[in-house]
Amino acid sequence: MAKSWTVTVSALQFACTGDVLTNVETAERSYHCASSACLLVFIVDHAKVLAFYCRMNQNTFGRRLVRAAHKKGANIILIQELFEGYYFCQAQKEDFFHRAKPCKEHPTILRMQKLAKELAVVIPVSFFEEANNAHYNSVVVIDADGTDLGLYRKSHIPDGPRYQEKFYFNPGDTGFKIFQTKFAKIGVGICWDQWFPEAARAIVLLGAEILFYPTAIGSEPQDDGLDSRNHWKRVMQGHAGANLVPLVASNRIGKEIIDTEHGKSEITFYGNSFIAGPTGELIANADDKYEAILVAEFDLDKIKSKRHSWGIFRDRRPDLYKVLLTLDGSNISL
After folding, report:
1. Distance of CA 171 to the CA centre of its chain
2. Strand (E) positions, 156-224?
3. What's the half-sphere exposure (Cβ side, CA atoms, 13 Å) at 163?
């Protein structure tokens, strides 16, 4: 009889405030979901999948989302990108560098280490990192015993209207990494990383069994007619399907207004956090207005067998991919 190794993953979604403590407590605390909730259990060819979706009004804070996900059986729980506060990259302001802190003795990371150990869950924690005179958009992966498994620094740094991250963040220097947690080998990309199929493939080549993407994405102020949410989801669904691994994406909700040198700037974050299965299918999907806890269970042994039998890694031709080492497709040495 084939062995079975099941892992339950979760994506959290909530609106952030300007107060760090409020946001951290929102991520941590538990609540009884008395509003709109549903529980779905169904079978697909690779796994028994359970999807729990709980939503509450976005202005209700302090609800212990990590603890609530744990109560629903989650082993690995993803919190959205830079969840300690508003998405400050709307503006280029020196004051916001004060938000950065070194990884060591970081108060939010220490708190999440304590929480992970208490609940025996894995938590990737996004934060604004200061490292001497460098600054990074980073994630620390905390194992189920509270151990800090290491750091990933965001590789792809965007620079566009209201997403002015190059002002704050150095390009990540860790390279793509996997983290051997108690429950699975996982890989983490951060927001803009999720648009690059090369990154997803590299992480899975390193051995990742599940991909995680904490995110902050919403409206595009330069184009009122542009709504990228479906494009955003389809790209990552493609990563899941192309690599035959589950994928978890967590995004924030709510309107955030930042004072800039040119007046007030705002982004409405569209949520739509989701969990995709290894063929790219949507297992669970939040909406654009409410706090959510998405939970899905995967049999990683069945998925591994399917990935191996499908042949996508057997039939790769790395010798033909040198063009990927160029910026413009020229000067290829084959």
Report:
1. 18
2. 159-160, 163-164, 178-180, 185-188, 210-214
3. 17
Q: Which two three-digit tokens encode residue 237?
A: 């669904």
pTM: 0.92
Token pair listed for 102: 């070194």
Output the furthest CA–CA distance in the chain (Å, rounded).
65
**Which active-site residues does the annotation give?**
81, 154, 191
Segment 63-77, tens digit of pLDDT: 379 999 999 999 999
Closest by CA to 180, choosing from 217, 214, 149, is 149
Structure tokens at 181: 């947690």
Nearest CA-CA partner of 298 in 43, 124, 69 = 43
Do the Cβ atoms of 228 and 220 come closer than 8 Å? yes
CA dist., res. 156 & res. 138, Å (int): 12
Q: Identify whether the C-beta of residue 247 lies closer than 8 Å to the C-beta of residue 210.
A: yes
Q: What percent of the chain has pLDDT over 90?
A: 81
